[in-house]
Design brief:
The protein has about 270 residues and is mainly α. It has helices at about 1-30, 40-45, 55-80, 85-90, 105-120, 140-145, 160-170, 175-180, 185-205, 215-225, 235-250, 255-260, 260-265. Helix 10 packs across helix 11. It is globular, with a radius of gyration of 20 Å. The N and C termini lie far apart (about 45 Å). The model is unreliable at about 130-150 and about 260-265 (pLDDT under 50).
Length: about 270
């Protein structure tokens, strides 16, 4: 018990440093905000070159971290030095800001996401273009090939496809799967937003020197965001995967998310 108590105290110091990092990032975000006046969204600001890719992700990640602070502070108050154990063994990673994630927690979340994604792919896939022939099906595919996301009619996609893409990108909790329910009402908007983020991030990567210009950490984050497995893969392998992804995006972006994993990964 003494060992766990001492380890917990060490992690509390680590958490304190993580919270300080959030504050530092927040001050940087405040300096960037004036440039966003008049832009409808962060994605549009990145697309137009108002933001660099680094600034875009700094804002998004800081927003996410700040939103988690209240609940994380409550867990710290209740659990004290035993917070790391509670977070790991009770699966509370979602309440912890990214700057406070410990390596074991990060890898555990990655493995869990990859198992869930793998199970979803093993259930089988059907090309999206063959599931709809009305507006938003082939028409949306043409829009994607022309450079857009092709998600003008994602609301009308079949439920199995919505569920699969949602699982692949981690857009809804695995608790829904356990009770056998798919949050169909929530998924279209989440998928549309997620694919727009991926699309504009792809453009930013290409604009700022390509995949080879990404650091090892950014390589992993970029691969995760696109539903690609990262656990145990060296930087060279991730670079190759993302290079192939950039080629795949020239086809139908949503189809890539749904069925191109076998083409890109295997």
């Amino acid at each position: 018990l003494t060992f766990y108590f001492r380890t917990g105290k060490a992690y509390l110091t680590f958490y304190k440093s993580g919270v300080k990092a959030i504050y530092h990032n927040y001050t940087l975000v405040r300096q960037i905000r004036p440039r966003l006046a008049g832009t409808p969204s962060l994605e549009q600001a990145l697309r137009d070159g108002v933001l660099s890719r680094a600034e875009y992700h700094l804002i998004r990640r800081t927003r996410s971290d700040v939103s988690r602070i209240p609940l994380f502070a409550l867990v710290l108050l209740v659990c004290g030095e035993f917070t790391p154990l509670v977070v790991i063994f009770m699966g509370l990673s979602g309440v912890v800001p990214r700057t406070c994630h410990i390596p074991r927690q990060i890898e555990g979340a990655q493995r869990k996401a990859e198992r869930r994604r793998g199970e979803s792919f093993r259930q089988g896939t059907v090309p999206i273009a063959t599931t709809r022939t009305t507006r938003g099906g082939v028409a949306a595919a043409g829009a994607a090939a022309a450079g857009g996301t092709g998600l003008e009619d994602v609301q009308g996609l079949p439920k199995p496809i919505l569920a699969h893409v949602g699982r692949s990108l981690g857009l809804y909790s695995s608790l829904w799967d356990r009770v056998g329910v798919t949050p169909t009402i929530l998924l279209p908007r989440r998928i549309r937003n997620a694919v727009e983020r991926i699309d504009v991030d792809d453009l930013a990567i290409q604009r700022e020197g390509g995949v080879k210009g990404l650091s090892e950490g950014e390589l992993k984050l970029a691969a995760e965001a696109r539903g690609l497995d990262v656990v145990g893969k060296p930087s060279g392998s991730l670079t190759s995967l993302l290079d192939m992804w950039m080629q795949a995006r020239k086809r139908i972006l949503l189809n890539c998310l749904y069925q191109a994993r076998s083409a890109v990964v295997e």
